[in-house]
Amino acid sequence: MAKQSDESDENYRVRVQHRIEMLMPVLADAAVGDFSRNVPLGGPHDEFSELYVGVQLMLEVIREKLDQLEQLNVDLEDIIAKRTNELYGSETRFRAVSDSANDAIVTIDAHGAVVYLNRAAEIIFGRTLAATNGKPLTTLIPSLDPKYLKALPTPPSLEQKTWQID
């Protein structure tokens, strides 16, 4: 009787080992981000059957979510391309208007650094955008009291901005 039990235990161990070995390549691929392999669902109906089905269902959900993520990425790239084109058109119109103005137009960032000068500003201040870009506004107007810069409204930071994608 003990010999039969030992053989039965050995058969069970071999069967369990075989079922685990069948699943391991699928799990190894999934562990490195490859969810393309399917679980081998054929075989005897035993305690591993539900595990196999559960892992297969999980892989299918992951594939579905990856497909959705891929589509969202494509949609986002389309939106970015559209908005980039809109921004380029807006910037082109702004530069056309500002470069034809007789008054100086100076744009600074939130920190008071020069980011744009129109042609009239370059002539009036005797400096080019290339020479002043990123430098403090006081580079153009040395006598400017810093309290005036502090009085300028600060644009909202990106952390405070809520972005909505249509």
Features:
two-stranded antiparallel ribbon, mainly alpha, about 170 residues, 5 helices, Beta-Lactamase
What features would you describe in this structure?
With 166 residues, the protein is mainly alpha-helical. The protein has a domain at 102-153: Beta-Lactamase, CATH 3.30.450.20. Helices cover 61% and strands 4% of the residues. Strands 1-2 form a two-stranded antiparallel ribbon. Strand 1 and strand 2 form a beta hairpin. The longest helix has 54 residues, at 47-100. The radius of gyration is 33 Å and the shape is rod-shaped.
Distance between the termini: 73 Å
Q: Tell me about the largest β-sheet.
A: 2 strands, antiparallel
Fraction of residues in helices? 55-70%
Rg estimate, integer Å:
33 Å
Q: What is the succession of H and E elements?
A: HHEEHHH
Mean pLDDT: 87
Structural class: mainly alpha
Number of strands: 2
Q: Quick one: overall form?
A: rod-shaped
Strand content: under 5%
Q: From the 3D coordinates, which CATH architecture of the domain at 102-153 would you assign?
A: 2-Layer Sandwich
Strand order in the largest sheet: 1-2
CATH class of the domain at 102-153: Alpha Beta
User: What's the tally of helices?
Assistant: 5
Instruction: Report the CATH superfamily of the domain at 102-153.
Output: PAS domain
Instruction: Enumerate the spans where pLDDT stays under 50 for 5 or more consecutive residues.
Output: none
